[in-house]
Amino acid sequence: MTEMTDIKSIPQAPLTLTILGAIPVWILILLPKAFFTEIAFPVFIYAALIVSFLGGINWGLSLLHKNRFFLWSVIPCIFIWFVTWMYFINERIDNVFYYWVFLLIALLVQFGIDYFIAEQDEKLNWTRLQRLIGTVLIGLPVLVVIFRLAV
C-alpha cells in the first residue's frame, strides 16, 4: 500500500473540476431555510449524478486494467438510483431524511471503491487524494443537510 501523495501531485484540471463541481451542493447549505426545501431535491439529484459519474469512471478503469472489479463499481450507482426513485415518489412527504443518509452512504462506499481501484495502479496514486477531496467537498454539505432535516 502506497501513501497518498500531496495536493501538488494532482493534475490541475481534475482538481479544478472537483472543486468547481462541488459548488452547487455548497450553495444549498448557504441558502436560508425558506429556500432550502425548494432546492433540496435538485441538489440531491446532482449529488446522485456525481455518485453515478464516479461509478462510470470506475467501470472504465476496471476494464482498462482487465480486472473483474468493474461489477462492484456500479453497485453504488444502482443503489443511489433506487434511492433517487424513492425520493422522487415520496418528495411530498416531510421526512426525506433517510434518503439523504443513503446518499451519504453511497458517496462513502463509492470513495472506498475508488480508493481500492487506485491502489491497483501506481499511476493512479494521485486519484486517491483527489477523490478524498471530492468526497469531503460533497459529503460535508450532504451531512449538513442531514442535520438540518433532523432538526
In short:
The protein has 151 residues and is mainly alpha-helical. The protein has helices spanning 12-21, 23-30, 33-64, 70-73, 75-89, 97-119, 125-150.
Walkthrough of the structure:
With 151 residues, the protein is mostly helical. Helix content is 78%, strand content 0%. The protein contains 7 helices and no strands. 28% of the residues are buried. The mean pLDDT is 82.
Topology:
Layout: H1 12-21, H2 23-30, H3 33-64, H4 70-73, H5 75-89, H6 97-119, H7 125-150
Helix pairs in contact: 1-7, 2-3, 2-7, 3-5, 3-6, 5-6, 6-7
Number of strands: 0
Question: How far is the N terminus from the C terminus?
Answer: 41 Å
Q: What oligomerization state is this entry in?
A: single chain
Instruction: Tell me the number of helical segments per DSSP (H or I, 4 or more residues long).
Output: 7
Our estimate of the beta-strand percent is under 5%
Percent helix: over 70%
- Poorly predicted runs of 5 or more residues: none
* Radius of gyration from CA coordinates: 16 Å
Mean pLDDT, rounded to whole units?
82
Q: The biggest beta sheet, please?
A: none
